[in-house]
Amino acid sequence: MASAKTMLQKVLDLHTVTQRAEDELLLYVDYNVVHEGPFYAFDGLAREGRKVMRPSQTVGFADHYVPTVGRKLGTAGIADPEVRSMVERLQQNAERTGILHFGMADPQQGIMHVVVPELGMAHPGMVIVGSDSHTCTNGAFGALGFGVGASQIKHVLATQTIWFRKPPTLRITVSGDLGRGVSAKDLALAIISRIGVAGGSGYAIEYAGDAVRSLAMESRMTLCNMTIEMGARAGMIAPDEKTRDYLQDRPYAPSGEAWGQALSFWQSLRSDDEARFDAQVDVDGSELQPMVTWGTCQDEASAVSASIPDPRAITDPARRARAEHALAYMGLRPGTPIRDIRIDRVFIGSCTNARLEDLRDAAAVARGKMARIPAIVVPGSMSVKRAAEAEGLHEVFLGAGFEWRDPGCSMCTGSNGDLVPAGERCASTSNRNMEGRQGKGSRTHLVSPAMAAAAAITGRLADVRDFIGS
Amino acid sequence: MEAFTTLRAVAVPYYHADVDTDELIPHRFLRKPLSAGYGNFLFYDKRRGPDDKEDPAFVLNHAQYRRAQVLVSGRNFGCGSTREGAVYALRDYGIRAVIAPSFADTFSGNCVQNGVLPVVLPERSVEDLCAQLEAAPGAEVTIDLANQSVTVPDGTFCRFEIERSRKTQLLEGLDEIAITLKHRAAIARFEAQYRARLPWLSCSSSE
Fold first, then answer.
1. What distances in angstroms separate CA A372 from CA A319, A362, A439, one per listed residue?
2. Domain B6-174 carries which CATH code?
3. Residues A59-81: pLDDT tens digits?
4. CB contact (8 A) between residue A321 and residue B16
5. Chain A contact present for B137, CB below 8 A
6. Does the N-terminal or the C-terminal CB of chain A have fewer CB atoms within 10 Å?
7. Are residues A262 and B200, on separate chains, in Cβ contact within 8 Å?
8. Predicted TM-score (pTM) of this structure
9. Which ipTM score applies to this complex?
């Protein structure tokens, strides 16, 4: 059927203003989301004497540079003047240009990829760009979300559009049920380890199959969030009743008569049965185990029950050389059982894994236990923090010796000063494990929230399945 | 933006796969003003040892490469974070072109926005080029964007592909916003029709 379309194609058709080559489209942008980073974009716009075309369609979040402790004094309490100026500059740029802004003291403050969905801003069928690669998180709603650099943020500020090369499509179908202790994070790491850190390069991914349909919205966000770690342009999941239930009554969701219109439109967005994808990957979800990264690339991951692989067994020379270098950096030897690896600290947070469901998973493991190593829990937003406290999760964490902090990107990139000291090994629920990502000389093991909690209470990379009931 | 037409310059080999933008510029430098000279931060944690002194073993610190304007690297170059600071660092250091078997999408887009040419050559050609550069440190390559060609030290002539719009933007040093604003009327027409059709989609609770 020639007219059968993918969900991506439907979203592109809906947003194409014009095109300059067969596959190069000028797309209208519904939301442009920025953090403190792209100050260059606002500076450039001012220098060029240009205006923000649609201020209400750009949203600013203080997340990368905000402190996660000691906020009583506001930005004045941020000791490092450069860090402080990043938070203040976004606020000044927002005031000057009239864009929406969720600053450090806002009751809705949090990580952009947590708060945009939480406010009901990300709807099926939207085009959402952001100054951060993890803007692909919004794909969980059937939106096309992707990150761009500061120049393109400036372009969107000035024109409310972006030039977009139509990508080939890859469908990843996950069948079966994810087993006990296996989360969306493990699924994402398993996919990345299989197809490689560039395995999705150039593609727009659609995640499908029973296992994806069964995921709660928070888990879908985790999966879509990790899409960029396979190099893909975007990752989307078709909207369904879970999407609808999540969005209903959120502040920026359609309401009244528009709600009904929106629902029937969302129904129409899913890929047609006969739609053709350029590539296909099938994953049996029932075969997966909790995953751990052991290297400095996101595809250097294994099941927790495995041992550190021997790079000599890797046939691709580039990947072998990378693995050898990674093991030297990580201070690990081939053949070491992953469960024997000692951990120095734990970070539970980030746009990947700091939503309420993630904190519940971690708390279920930590409840009644005591952390052997420093562990911090950084909720994704003030709203997540309030909801977690209403359930008493903070008491579970505090009782187990974990720190309970204020929301932000924190130790995922350490730009606010929350760093892993050189040589230390951190079990982290974030998304990147490159050399120095959490601080110069830091060693990162990416895991799920439940696995991170298990690492905190044992002081090593434990198998979470030993700590949870069936 | 400075146009890119032809370049004959020293090329530095850094043949590693999946060089990410955290490696190109660690996050802690992204709060610096551009006037700080982002070239100083390029590969910072690789270029400098724990004592913050230059590591003489790192390739960019070799005397022959101080004036390099071309970087040759492995597949999936520029993966990870969207930080444009990675390109500012390369550009400020003096790098005008990067040659690799493949690039991360966002990174190559950021290059074009800053007058840096991403050149995609087959893996084998890149490997061969790196071997030549390592055998003769300080050797030059010639890049001709109009002809879409790279001439490597042994005289081999390699053609590369690049999207027409990127080529034009680089050759003429065009400002993309100015290009897009030629479609201003079309954008306005689109927006009116879009909002009428899907009134809840754009800025539902704010307008």
1. 35, 15, 22
2. 3.20.19.10
3. 999 999 999 999 999 999 999 99
4. yes
5. no
6. C
7. yes
8. 0.97
9. 0.95
